[in-house]
Amino acid sequence: MTEFIEHGTSTTEGTTQTLHFVLNLPHSVERVWTALVSPGELPGWLAAADVLEPRLGGAVTLRWLNNEEEGVHSGHVTAWDVERIVEYTIDLHGRCRFHLEHAGPDAPATTVRFTNEFEGDDSLRLDCLAGWHNHFEFLVDALEGRPKDWSSWSLDRWSELRTAYEKG
Q1: Per-residue b or e along 78-110, where b marks 16 or more CB atoms closer than 10 Å to that residue's CB
Q2: Cβ 43 vs Cβ 53: under 8 Å
Q3: What is the pTM (predicted TM-score) of this model?
Q4: Mean model confidence pLDDT for the chain
Q5: How far apart, in Å, are the Cα atoms of 53 and each of 57, 58, 79, 93?
Q6: pLDDT confidence of residue 112
Q7: pLDDT value at position 68?
Q8: pLDDT at 80 over 80
């Protein structure tokens, strides 16, 4: 699974944190797009989409399923180019942009370039690097037909990733 997800990188300017991930997935752009934008598939790797209007300017409300408080975060679709770019800008998590590219002529493959820009300190930066990495592992599983069972979620893998990102 980790062979599909490059270690995330980040830059900091003042209090603005920008995270970058590259995912190399052995699935078609169409299949990955569906996982990123379908209210029926988002809970299998990220969050429940209580509201998702699939268009530029559309409303989005995501309900995280990996904590007891079931954090709900709302915002808008700030970029939408079917099967190429989707960007959600939501409170707390800031701007979350997924850019999809066909990655191979011989077999279905997709490169996803992910950027997350938000305001926060270094501790939040590390938390988010670990969190997104963990969610992308769930995405790989979901694309293979194994959506996340949130009732079995624990902080163990996230903590391991958090420590790895802290050590650099």
Answers
A1: bebeebeebbbbbeebbbbbbbbeebeeeeebb
A2: no
A3: 0.94
A4: 94
A5: 8, 5, 12, 18
A6: 98
A7: 58
A8: yes
The domains found in the chain, sorted by start residue, are 2-167 (3.30.530.20)
- The percent of residues above 70 in pLDDT, for the chain, comes to 96
pLDDT at 133: 97
Tell me if 75 sits within 8 A of 62, measured CB to CB. Answer: no
- pLDDT at res. 67: 67
- Which tokens in the block code for residue 80? 């939408």
135 contacts 19 by C-beta, under 8 angstroms: no
Contact partners, residue 2, CB within 8 Å, separation at least 6: 137
